[in-house]
Every structure is written in C-alpha cells, then in structure tokens.
Amino acid sequence: MEHMGIEPGRIQFSWVSSAESTKFVKVVNEVTESIKALGPLKHFVKAKAKVV
Amino acid sequence: MTGYIAKIKKISKQILDEGTVDMVIGFRKGTLALMNEPCFAKTSKAVDDFVWDGNCGINLANYLTSRKEKIGIIAKGCDSRNIITHIIENKIDRDQLFIIGVPCKGMLDRHLLSAKFPDEILNVSESEDAVIIKGADYEETLPRKEVLQENCSVCIHRNPVIYDELAADLVEEQADLDRFEAVRKIEALNAEDKWQYFEDLLATCIRCYACRNACPLCYCPTCFVDESKPQWVGKGQDTTDIRTFHFLRAFHDAGRCTDCGACVRACPMGIDVRMFTKKLEKDCFESFGWEAGLSLDARPPLDTFNPDDPNDFIL
Hints:
heterodimer; A: mainly alpha; elongated; B: alpha/beta; 2 domains; 5-stranded mixed β-sheet; 3-stranded antiparallel β-sheet; 8 strands
C-alpha cells in the first residue's frame, strides 16, 4: 500500500495475544494517536453517491 | 529464433501421431501484425499452421488450467515457470504434459512499435539481430535488442526450466542486469508522488480485464471483481475502484508472478500493469529469496512459513 502512495504509518500491524489486554490497549491508543496526527485519508476515498 | 519452427513442428507432429498427447498448444499467425494467437492442434495436419517468432508473447500456460486431456505445450522460459506454478497449485498434472521447451531471446514490444509507427504496421519480419517493420508506404529495420518488451530485456530465465524435449540449443542467460530498476525509481518517490505515478499509470484503464484474462495465474472460477454477493469492489470507472482492481490482482499474484508480460501485451491501452506485480516480485525475492516457478519441489512463500521469516513490519 505504501508503494502506491498511502502514507507510511497509515497501515500498522501488531501481534497481540488474547492474554495481553494491556498491550492491546496500548497498541490501540498508539495507533489512534498516530493516525490522528496524519489527519484524514486523502486518497482511496470514494465519494458517496448523491441522492437527489 | 525464427529457425526453431521446423523442429517445433517435427516434435509436435511426432507426439500427435504417436498418440502421446491429444493436442498441442502453440502459436499461429494472428490476423494483425505483432499479434500471434494461440493455436490448439489436434491433428498433425493442424500443426502446419504453427509459427514461431518474436510475437509469441502470450503465456500458453494460461490454457492448461484444469484440462483433463494429455497436452503438448510449447514453452518459453516464462511459460515453463508458469507451468511449474500450475503443477504446484494442482491445476494440471505433470504426467499430462509433454513440454516442448523453446529457449527464448525475447519478444517484441507491440506497444512500443505501434507508438513508433503511427501508420498501421502491416508486416514484421525478423532475423537474429534485426526486425524489419513494413507498413503501406514505409519499411524500416531496427535492432532487435531495442524493441524487446521490457520484461524480456530484464529477463534472467530465458531457457525453459522444465521440458521433455528442446526445440533448439539453450541460449545464454542475461547477466549483470538490474531487474528492479523501475521499481526502485518508484520507491524513491515520496508518498504523494507515488500516488500520482499510479494515478497517471491507470488514467487510461477501461477495465476490460484483458490483463486478468491473459494471466495464467488468474484462474479463479469467479474473480473478486465479478462477485456481487458480496461486492468487493465497485464495477464502474471510479478511480478508487480501478486502482483496487489492479493492486488486489497484483496481491493475488504475489510469489506467483513470473513477469511473463502477458498482461502488458494484452492491454489495449498499453498500460504497464507490471509496475504493480514487479514490486511484489521484488519483495518476495528480497524477503524470502523466492523466484516463482523454478522448482517442482519448493513450496511458494505464501504457502509455508519459517521461524526465520522477516517480521519487522509487526509493531
């Protein structure tokens, strides 16, 4: 995805075991923060069909 | 390379007459210059139509999927690698095949030539090093090396990897090439320029799916773009949908693509769709040391795992 122009960091992977609840919370918070910092996605967004 | 045809015909006739195979898949002259078409010969008489030259760029492995009969097939380096991929993926049995290997010296780039000669090309003939292009009122000789398809000029597997009989002596493989130069150029761009590069690349796509249909890897009974329940991707000309089709198709070919160039050759708009697959070919090579279709005994990288697999993308 990055190769075709989606910003680095927009897509993230993590490995969290079902027993690692604290890690899960940490990852979610970190991802949310870093994506917020990137701002809204500019590309790969489809305009909604107009309903007249 | 045009001299191979006598031997190709001889072997084809022999295996048909002896009953080794039910048909031989080869090429015959197409209705247009630069476009030879696949030919399915079921009798030794039909073999007389066979031709071999630099316009045989279509990948014949495409016609093997789930066939039940015994088949003779003419295979260049890339075709042979796709035949191996087909065998590994259980789309055909090795025992069903008689592979006539053809050492290849590269196929002619029809898009490049058509762009060079805006007036219709009526006839193309070749010698070992030159190509003679004839139109209604022109004739020009070009060095063969300069009009090869890009995937052929960076090819390092010209000789068939698997064969029962060869139509000619093996050719020297090209060495000291930077196969991934084009991909590296894109990698060097920033995110916005990358986006724009692919936006421009796909600007003329009409979603005819010729690239998919020409591809020997695209054999799914229902392609994801044709599904309607659920509908994975919109069916119109929205640029997001066009891009989704191309990059997902490339992902489906990850670790399987042999860079045969059939997709680009089939494209009526001359789009270099290889720029998607080539990146995945590079990644597979760099991450797993993998090149598709070189051995019947090795499992593809997306089909197996190893404790040493790179995983630095995981946070």
